């Protein structure tokens, strides 16, 4: 009994012991495996670790991809993937899980290699440089949109803009965004929208698989975006999808609606409010200037310099008055002097007046109305006029006596 | 054409605000700037209030075959 008891003790394991055995077996026997299946219940935990279930028609297994492990794409539910990793056991819950090293989309291996290769090439060529990314103008009134004419994308963009900035004008270039010829059409669309007067271009597409989005991962598409003269916003796929277009574009929008919001960062009604503010602001600026000038004027008239100027003007005008008075009195003195002198002179002049002697009884002898001067001589029988003070007589010379007598 | 003048109106308005804000100009040119600014504001307002969302389709041959 005692022995048996001991035997039983030996084969009875604690839960921990059993779990440890299981984990040793699983980890050693299975080791590192590649498993293909479909992702479900994908969750990105706030810690950065990613949890999901890998399943196929008959079974499922919990998987974890620790935070430090790189992912080259965004897994989502329903995606077929190939996972590489090892089995690990989680003792507290008695669960095993696949501890993933890598996850790759099943059957997409080639596309992934191509995506990574192109991304590396373009990055090296400077296509993604942040210093070549142009800013989207704050106010945009004309945009170009390249997207599918069917589906929600164009509707999301127009309704968003209708709501936020109804004055906007949209150049819509219906574009093939999937399948054969789509990348060529995207290239053409970007070129055609560059020929319009749109200020910004939105290149948009709804979500889809890596294959669906492939035309946005092609080099010709990247080149067209790189060479676009107008700033370009890429809004391709869902928030979790990244395409080469997103990396090359001046701005990446998570969704088409977000792209429409990015070209209308200031809504029209906010902008109208801004305009009202601006008008009252510039009025204030002007009033401030006017007040400044007024105060300066007041200040100037109050200063000593201004007082001096006023004083200076007053004394100057007094001086001018004084000078005027002096000139006037000088002038009248001179006039008086002149008058006196003229009077005295006129007495003298009167005495010198040639006719004055007539008053004393002298006479003037004229011939044909002209005075005969002292150098002219008279001769016999000559007719002359004798002019006296009060009469003139005509006379004839009887006899001229010889000059010699004198 | 109208939109283009809207953009250039805005640009000009910004210049004017800078000038007015600096206050570093004679009063009479400030008055002129102010008048011009008020006119630009009214023009911009008028444009925004009168314009409606417009969608202009650009012909695309490959999409039509879809």
**What would you call the shape of chain A?**
rod-shaped
Number of strands of chain A: 14
Note the beta-strand portion of chain B.
Answer: 5-15%
Strand percent estimate of chain A: 15-25%
Q: So how many helices of chain B?
A: 3
Report the mean per-residue pLDDT of chain B as an integer: 80
Q: Whole-number radius of gyration of chain A?
A: 61 Å
Instruction: Please tell me the total number of domains of chain B.
Output: 1
> What gyration radius of chain B follows from the Cα positions, in whole Å?
19 Å
Q: Largest chain interface and its two residue counts?
A: A-B, 44 and 35 residues
Low-confidence stretches of chain B: 61-66
CATH class of the largest domain in chain A: Alpha Beta
Helix content of chain B: over 70%
Mean residue pLDDT of chain A: 87
Structural class based on helices, strands and sheet pairing of chain B? mainly alpha
Task: Provide a quick synopsis of the model.
The complex is a heterodimer of chains A (406) and B (66). With 406 residues, chain A is of the alpha/beta class.
Could you explain the architecture of this structure?
Chain A has four domains: 12-108, Nucleic acid-binding proteins (OB fold (Dihydrolipoamide Acetyltransferase, E2P)), CATH 2.40.50; 113-262, Rossmann fold; 268-352; 358-405, no CATH class. Chain A is built from ten helices and 14 strands. Chain A is an alpha/beta fold and 406 residues long. In chain A, strand 2 (50-55) and strand 3 form a beta hairpin. In chain A, strands 1-2-3-5-4 form a five-stranded mixed barrel. In chain A, strands 7-6-8-9-10 form a five-stranded parallel β-sheet, with helices on both faces. By secondary structure, chain B is mainly α. Chain B has one domain (6-65). Chain B contains three helices and one strand. Chain B has helices at 2-22, 27-50, 61-64; one strand at residues 54-57. In chain B, helix 1 packs antiparallel against helix 2 (27-50). The model of chain B is unreliable at 61-66 (pLDDT under 50). The chains are: A alpha/beta (406), B mainly alpha (66). Chain A binds chain B through residues 139, 141-142, 149, 158, 161-162, 166-176, 181, 184-185, 188-189, 192-193, 196-197, 199, 268, 271-272, 275, 278-279, 281-283, 285-286, 288-290, 292-293, and chain B through 3-4, 6-7, 10, 13, 16-17, 20-21, 23, 27, 30-31, 34, 37-38, 41, 44-45, 47-49, 51-58, 60, 62-63, 66. Strand 7 (169-174) of chain A pairs parallel with strand 1 of chain B, so a sheet runs across the interface.
